[in-house]
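[Meeting: bench + compute handoff]

Bench side (C.D.) handed over the final construct sequence. Compute side (W.E.) agreed to return the predicted structure before the next meeting so the bench team could plan truncations. Sequence as handed over:
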Amino acid sequence: MRKKLQSFFYSKDRLNVFNIALVLIFLLGLMLRIIGTNPGYPQTHPDEPVMYATSINMVINKTLDPFSVPIYKFYYPGLTIYLYAFLFQFIFVPIGFVIRTLSSQSTALTDIAGPGFINAMYWSRYITAVITFLSVPLVYLIGQKMFNKYVGLIAALFIALNYRHVLSGHFSLTDGPNATFALLVLFISLVTYKNPSLKNYLFLGVSVALSLSTKLHFYSILSFLFVHLLIVMQKKNAIQIIKEFFSKKFILASVFVVVFFILLNPYLPLNFLIAKNTIAYYNLRIGLFYPPFEITFPSVWYLYEIGFGKIISILFVAGMFLVMKDRKLWVNGIFLSFFIFVPGILYLYFSHAGAYVRYFASITPFASIVAAYAFYVVFTKVWKRFAKNKTFFLLVLLFLALIASFDQIKNSLVLNYHATRPWNSRCITKWMNENIKENSIVAVNALVPRVDKTGVQYVDFDNVEGHKHIFTLGKLQEEKVDYAVLDIEYLRGRFNWWLSSSRLYWGPPVETLDNSLDGLVLKELSRYIVKTCIKPWESPGNNYIAIKIPKENKPSDLVLLRSHDFTLEKGKIWELSSPFKTEVLEDVRAIRSEDCLNKYCLKVEGRSGVPSREKIVIINNIPVVPGEKYIVKAKVKSYKKVEGENRDGFLRIDYYNSKDADDRKRGITASVSSRYFSDGSWKELSASIVAPKEAKYLQISFQVERYNRTFFIEDVRLYRSEDRVSEEEINASNAKEIKNEILYPLYLL
């Protein structure tokens, strides 16, 4: 053993720099995936409990049937589930038992699993981290076989550092392991192509079964069939081709695929209907094979900016061109295409699965190989002009590869540093315990921890009848709320719609998101933030903000500046004002109707439940004086009764610093009224805010969150307050708002 190690690290009594570099890359890849797994990483990914909770329940209940756990339902095949359960039972539980025995603690299995199975979650994350890491050496082996050892080395470095792949290694999900087993299929396919022995065929069959039992992605089968076809086509005549096609080794390998898949999913035949319904639901949810079939470019942007990184993305495109150009590499190109373009097309065109960007972790290792090949070709052509010292060649090669991976290095290091820090939930709990006084009223959403203090009243605005989303500043003031403590993670699903859009082409539509109700409200509330517990987007988790709600200050001395009754605009059709049109309204116009208070009013009619991000501008370019407080009021009526939990329709004030400013976008500051809810009668809505330092003009608009009902707007009035404006209000109007990268995070779990 010692001699083998010496021969590995030394060559002719000289250090083997290549092998040393390879080992260091492997160690780096392993450390990046393990660091931060415990304790500071997010408490949970929403899909993780299916994995670890199913496994630990199987251990506790002494059963091999994952379907006995209600949460399972075949969201994922059995390999990782059984692997977790096996290691829980025979490694982690005994270790936990010993530790707790030595410390004189309880040794009950449920106690070893941890409160809420938290220990099981950590154990499963460590297992996932190790399996995901195995992608790194496999990438090296494939790069070496397809091209040469230097390409393999560079590819291993690229994937070891890849942020998206590192991130997937921190969750007990199948995306990272799926990449590893897909790589295993490709590697054994290459081995089988060179040596089509029975043994290699059987190994290939087992690897395909392992891949399918990790995640039901069929492209592993394509690799299996393709390598067999290549072997078959080497025969010289039709009889030999037919004989080879139905050869014993191919049939046995195919049987191995089926048998090993069933062995890893033994209860699937007994619960086939449940599994079938789950798969159908899953496909429907992500739009797989369900029309319309559209290209989703935002996901391509994500791959370019984050998933692969800019330089690696360019190298990948160049690499595919180089592979296609060289006929000797076409076989390699086809193999790689099964694992890159087949799933890529499914994600980006035939479905909206591209919005679930963690799926791309299965593609990145294969893309890294292609990018590494392009990097090597370019480098060697330039290197010909320099010295031919192999050690120097290797060191410069690695140095430039590190530069090419700079953004991935940065993101991965930021991820792991903050992943080692305490949870944000502990941070916000500590602040709440220290600062929220007894008998306070605190508005929270469902993800915010509660503190146990006498008399503290919680107003849960998230999906509670009568209080759903009552988090506009005006409504919080009406409810006499002292603090609002929000987990802004709950917004992620609302803001990530753009990733599955076929009408956006590049980058997050920040201006559009800023025009949404959630964006408007949180930006306004953020002027009153007293505590933030936030990690950067590279290290995802629950981020919290605490807002001190200012006391409602209704001015008593008002000067009417403008009154608008729509009489002069009879018949006018309004256009929506937004950087991004959803085009869901049927009609917005000034009409004469019995529904109006007077003769004419603005009618807003629509029949879509699609989220709206457009405003209907009523009055624009009204000159203002910085430091003055302006109030807009209007009477609003719904055609039908609007319950409190379905409240909608609000007034909006935006301040701009120029007439030439793009008034489709959110202004320097903006404020919204409470939303309409009533029995269908007229109700007055009001919004107010002090004009900030840069403000020169004001805009008044009306907006709804969802255009699925009819509203009437009348008697729009603008006032200026003659009362003394408080210092608190002036400071709030000029305060820095929450940053977009926090409000609209890019990590996208």
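W.E. noted at the follow-up: The radius of gyration is 30 Å. C.D. will use this when planning the next construct.
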